[in-house]
Specification:
Layout: E1 2-6, H1 11-22, E2 26-31, E3 46-49, H2 55-62, E4 67-70, H3 85-103, E5 107-111, H4 122-135, E6 140-146, E7 149-150, H5 161-170, E8 176-180, E9 192-193, E10 196-197, H6 198-208, E11 217-221, E12 226-227, H7 228-238, E13 245-249, H8 250-260, H9 270-278, H10 285-290
Parallel strand pairs: 1-2, 1-4, 2-3, 4-5, 5-6, 6-11, 7-10, 8-13
Antiparallel strand pairs: 9-12
Length: 308
């Protein structure tokens, strides 16, 4: 099949390109000018130059495709540069959904996130809006909601949770923050996440393309659940460290992040911390079986890329 892919140069998108090619599909990808070097196996893809604000480029990417995958996403905004959740998570998805409808491309697969909600953070709200917009079309849609996605980012320009955590928090010569709500330090780290490997996520996307029993369905994706402290220790051990933690009241850091989160050098935003301490778990065992995917464990071996 010819598959139009938006977000191909990103972390998850780069692995979706690989999996599309592995399964014999022909990717048609939208790439920004001078971003071709971020695209794996670019010589095997049809490239359309432009960005998600360029309707003509969107038309050219979707024209003649059999399916559309939208996986553009950002983990933090830089409004001064025009990088916003509203534009990339919702407006961009809306343009592609509308174009698919107008072009008669009936298959549309959307990358969302576990825990999205209308009354959540800006990240969660805009992901939720794109879901709702897609659901009210007549397209044969599928929505995937991954929890924490991990795996080799294959380049410094692709943000990946474990790599960023190592760089921004665990590599510092101080104990790692064990966040907690309220003021009681005994509540530190009592939130969990279900890490899922990026290769597994890409397999879900590509396997679903012609699976009719996945049409008009939403799938939360995650692996085994781990508490925050255990995630920190596993990541640290993956690159040969034993990291101490210290209770850290989230409210204090959120206040600081409210002022400094707009700067790229500050390690976390208020919204990111809010979502982190909410926890992010899901049980996806039946979906791994349905899509015939063997789960990749979250352990020091699968985190070996952190040694780079």
């Amino acid at each position: 099949m010819k598959v139009a892919l938006f977000g191909a140069t990103g972390f998850v998108g780069s692995y979706i390109v690989d999996e599309l090619l592995n399964q014999g599909h022909k990717p048609i990808v939208l790439v920004r000018e001078n971003s071709e070097d971020k695209l794996p196996q670019s010589s095997k893809c049809k490239l359309v130059k432009g960005d998600i604000n360029n309707q003509d480029a969107i038309n050219k990417t979707i024209q003649g495709a059999d399916a559309v995958i939208y996986c553009i996403g950002i983990i933090r905004e830089f409004k001064s540069k025009g990088i916003t959740y509203e534009n990339l998570h919702f407006q961009g998805a809306k343009r592609c959904i509308d174009t698919a409808v107008e072009s008669g491309v009936n298959r549309f697969i959307l990358m969302s996130a576990n825990g999205v909600k209308i009354d959540g953070t800006g990240y969660q709200k805009t992901k939720h809006l794109s879901e709702q917009y897609l659901k009210y079309t007549k397209l044969n849609w599928t929505i995937f909601r991954p929890s924490l996605v991990f795996g080799d980012p294959r380049g410094n320009n692709r943000p990946e949770f474990c790599t960023q955590l190592k760089k921004d928090m665990l590599s510092l010569p101080i104990p790692a923050p064990n966040f907690h709500k309220g003021l009681n330090p005994l509540d530190a780290g009592k939130f969990a996440m279900s890490p899922i490997h990026v290769k597994d996520v890409s397999s879900f996307f590509v396997n679903s393309i012609d699976m009719e029993n996945s049409f008009k369905k939403t799938y939360p994706l995650g692996g085994v659940a781990y508490y925050w402290k255990d995630i920190i220790q596993t990541i640290a051990k993956a690159y040969g460290k034993n990291k101490w933690t210290i209770p850290a009241p989230a409210i204090a850091i959120q206040i600081v992040a409210s002022f400094l989160g707009r700067f790229s050098w500050f390690p976390i935003t208020k919204d990111q911390l809010t979502m982190l301490i909410e926890g992010n778990v899901c049980d996806s065992d039946e979906f791994f079986e349905l899509f015939k995917i063997k789960p990749t464990p979250f352990n020091t071996e699968t985190l070996s890329y952190l040694n780079k």
